[in-house]
Amino acid sequence: MHTVWKGSISFGLVNIPIKLHAATENKDVKLRQLHKKCNTPISYKKVCEGCDQEVTEDEIVKAYEYAKNKFVVLDQEDLENLRKENEDKAVEIIDFVKLQEIDPIYFERSYYMSPDSNGSKAYTLLRKTLEESGKIGVAKIIIRSKEQLAIVRVFKDALVMETIHFPDEVRSIGEVPNIPSEQAVVQKELDTALLLVDQLTTAFDPDKYQDEYRLRLMDLIEEKKADSTVTASEAKRPLPDNVTDLMSALQASLDKTKPKKTTRKRKTLKEKTS
């Protein structure tokens, strides 16, 4: 399993070298966009709106837009130093709380934690401590240049780190429009609704739930493959050796679109411009 982060986590004076591994994966079926005319994949280019030119990665800098079209440019070196300054620090569990105290709206992404070299004993100690106490640990960690609030808990035989949102990242419920105020509910309707809940109540079994749309989409794709309803893109056109040779590119385009039969030989573009 791929390691997405490597470092250490501590509680008190106990330090545990660990690795993080993504606990979930996106199973969405990715569909490509093709040019309808020739079934060639569509590519996207980074273009400067001011210069109307395509730019390369080494021509791009990062900036913060503090007002409309006003930016503070941030040097890559400064960002790298800031990232290293925080990533080099060990992750420390700063609090222990009950899992039930955290609303699910705060949860973001899950990672399996595995012990790194010589960390098995301390890893087992933390796992056993969390199991016996019924608590979870709250910590901070830098992942992909972003500081994350996280909790550490036990899942089956493993420690799991869940990144959670900071309070200011959760929007206020007051911003949600059209939430009805408290209204009187007919008791008969409420009793019927509660009865329905009782009838549908069961033990949670995650294996019984499936992504029906994704399964049907894959069935459709396999069906089209079996029926030979497939397309292939045209071979890429070779680019001129010198892409800046505009005249050669124009001449090649003219030659490609020239009618097969003609009664009169046209002058080439070079002859016209000479």
Automatic annotation (TrEMBL):
UniProt keyword terms in alphabetical order: DNA damage, DNA recombination, DNA repair, DNA-binding
UniProt-listed Gene3D superfamilies: 2.40.290.10
Ranges of biased composition (kind: Basic residues): 258-274
Residues covered by the Ku domain: 52-181
Biological process annotations from GO: DNA recombination; double-strand break repair via nonhomologous end joining
GO molecular function: double-stranded DNA binding
Region Disordered: start-end pairs: 251-274
Function of the molecule: With LigD forms a non-homologous end joining (NHEJ) DNA repair enzyme, which repairs dsDNA breaks with reduced fidelity. Binds linear dsDNA with 5'- and 3'- overhangs but not closed circular dsDNA nor ssDNA. Recruits and stimulates the ligase activity of LigD.
Alphabetized PANTHER family for the sequence: NON-HOMOLOGOUS END JOINING PROTEIN KU
Family, per entry: Belongs to the prokaryotic Ku family.
Subunit structure: Homodimer. Interacts with LigD.
Protein's recorded name: Non-homologous end joining protein Ku
Species annotation: Rummeliibacillus stabekisii
